[in-house]
Amino acid sequence: MNWSEQVVLVTGGTGSFGKKFVELMLRDYRPHKLIIFSRDELKQHDMRTAGFDHPSLRYFIGDVRDEQRLERALAGVTVVVHAAALKQVPACEYNPFEAIQTNIMGGRNVIDAAINKGVHRVLALSTDKAVNPINLYGATKLCAEKMFVQANAYAGAQDTRFSCARYGNVVGSRGSVIPVFQEQRKRGRITVTDPRMTRFWLTLEQGVRFVVHCIEQMHGGEIFVPKIPSMKLVEMAEAIAPGCEVEYVGIRPGEKLHEVLVSEDEARNTLDLPDMYVIQPAHSWWRKENWVHGLPLADGFRYTSDTNPRWLTPEELYELIDAGSPASEGLHLAERQRARA
């Protein structure tokens, strides 16, 4: 893609992902126009005063629940990254109607508006919690995945294509456990749900670059899954807060012991590529020759955080935090040296 010719819109543009996406777009890709679509005027003001004031930037106040506002915002847009969502598991459990309105109905509005306005490519962000979901957040993201995949049939012969990017926990996002561990470190005691718990990890920048790569490669209908490392939460806590007492508080409602990025049932339609897995849609409109260089997966394959062949070391964790998180403040050299010892 020639990004200099693209008009790009990101929903949820003032969130953790959105800000990093805008930063890298302006620095490395330089689209013709970049539209930040979000519902919070204060966050847009804060972004502008923080230096996000490039001539190609446009700030658009709106909510993905409002289809008319989306259609106005998508006029002339060629690429959409759909990052807007309610993401906090407890908040979604307590406010289920709100989660459905934003994550499912908001996704439908993005799809309809993109088709109506002739957007070329739409990539929706998903999560490992969408695989075999046990909480409402995961269930809404599973529904959203299904909608964005099948939206390619709704578009028909029109040149509007939809895909999804599914990945794990993000170092440096607002919901990351890392700032929690750093705050608990001051009291000398950290809380961990279960010593066996594992999660997939990547930085905000890695997530953004993966999304850009998927937009450049997508045919429409794929769910892209990056190959990323895992780490036990207790090992992460001990690396961030060495010497602190660890208290195990038990798994909370809606949490899993381990996360899954590709399930056994999905693996039958999934291709293995050097840096990612591509889950192909099981629909008649999909062309199998779209990814001829991908290799089929073995029968019964699962991509899970506890059986992942790639594991983060404490030193690699420090590098991820430094590279992608404002929460790196306070992770001092002396603590790293103690951790190494």
Explain what the structure shows.
- This protein has 341 residues and is an alpha/beta fold.
- The chain has a single domain, classed as NAD(P)-binding Rossmann-like Domain (Rossmann fold), CATH 3.40.50.720.
- 38% of the residues lie in helices and 21% in strands.
- It has twelve helices and 17 strands.
- It has helices at 16-29, 41-49, 67-73, 89-94, 96-117, 136-155, 178-185, 204-217, 233-240, 264-267, 314-324, 333-340; strands at residues 7-11, 33-38, 57-61, 79-82, 121-127, 161-167, 169-171, 189-192, 198-203, 223-226, 230-232, 245-248, 260-262, 270-273, 276-279, 295-296, 303-304.
- The chain has a ten-stranded mixed beta sheet, with helices on both faces.
- β1 (7-11), α1 (16-29) and β2 form a beta-alpha-beta unit.
- α1 crosses α8, α3 packs across α5 (96-117) and α5 (96-117) runs parallel beside α6 (136-155).
- The protein is globular.
- 44% of the residues are buried.
- Residues 325-341 have low confidence and may be disordered.
Summary of the model, kept short:
With 341 residues, this protein is of the alpha/beta class. The chain has helices at 16-29, 41-49, 67-73, 89-94, 96-117, 136-155, 178-185, 204-217, 233-240, 264-267, 314-324, 333-340; strands at residues 7-11, 33-38, 57-61, 79-82, 121-127, 161-167, 169-171, 189-192, 198-203, 223-226, 230-232, 245-248, 260-262, 270-273, 276-279, 295-296, 303-304.
